[in-house]
Amino acid sequence: MAAADPTPPAAAPAPPRYSLPPVRIPAEDILFCVDVDLEASAEMKSASAPSSGSASSASPQPQPPAGAGAGAVRPPVRRMDAVRQALLLFVHSKLTMWPDHRFAFASLGETVSMVKKDFSSDVGSAREAIHSLSASESRYAMADLTQLFKIAYQEGKRAESQGRLLRVVLVYCRSSTKPHHQWPVKPKNFTLDIIYLHDKPTADNCPQKVYDALVDALEHVSQYEGYILETGQGLARVFFRQMCILLSHPLQRCIQDDLDIPKQVAKKTLAIEVAQNEDGTPVSSQQ
C-alpha cells in the first residue's frame, strides 16, 4: 500500500479585495438665485397644527421675549425671512465641510440681477449679500431665466478652468407664473438645483404647471444630478430640511429617485422596535 501524501491540499486563493481609490472632488462655486416676487413675502407656518390629544399639544409654547407685554405676538415668519436664514445655514455648513467653497448671489424679478457678482469664501460678504435680499411690493409679470443661464455658463467655463465646479441654486416662490428661458442647447457645464416654495393648489393658481416648467429647465441645463425639491405646506422647517439636502456635492449624489432622506424618526424607531421583537429581545415601554 502506498504511503499517504503528507502534503496538505493547497488553500483556495483569497478573493481579491475591493478597494476604491481616493479621489479629490473639486471645490464648488455656488450661485444662489432668489425669487424676489411679492409671493416671497407670504407668511409661513412655524409648526403644524397639533391634533387633539397629541403629545405636541402638551409641549410648552414659546414665551414672549423679556420686557414684552403678556399679549405680545411674535411677528410672522415670511418666506424671505426663511430664505435668508436657510442661506446663512447653508453657507456656514458648507464652509465647515470645506473652507474652499465660494458663493455669489443673484435675485430674480422679471429677469436676473446680480447681488454679489464675485465668488468668495468670506462669510461677512455673504452675510451682507443675504441680508440685502428683500421681496418686492408688487408681482412680476414674467420670470425669464435666460440671463441666469447665460451668467452660469460663463462662470461655469471659468470655474472649470480653475479645477472647480459651478452650481446654481434657484429658490422660486411663484404659484402661477411659469418661468421660461431662451437658452440654446450648449455643452452643459453647471449643475442646477431648485427649491420651489408655493401655495396649495386652488382654482386661482397652477403650481403643478410651474413645477413642470422648473423640471424642464433643470433637465435642459444641468450637467450633473440636479435636485428639485418643493413644498406647499408653508412650514419653515421643511424648507430648512430641503436646504440641508442640497449641501450634498453633485459628484457624490445618488439620483433623486433613489433619495430617501431625511428619514422620519418615528418610522425609524418603529423599525428598530420591530427588529428587536423579531430577535426575541424584550422591548420595554419604560424610559
Automatic annotation (TrEMBL):
Region of interest called Disordered, as start-end residue ranges on this chain: 45-74
Low complexity bias locations: 46-60
Range of residues in the leader sequence: none
Domain of life: Eukaryota
GO process terms (BP): DNA repair
Subcellular location per the Swiss-Prot or TrEMBL entry: Nucleus
Keyword Cytoplasm among record annotations: yes
A Gene Ontology cellular-component term: nucleus
Keywords, alphabetical: Cytoplasm, DNA damage, DNA repair, Nucleus
Record-given protein name: BRISC and BRCA1-A complex member 1
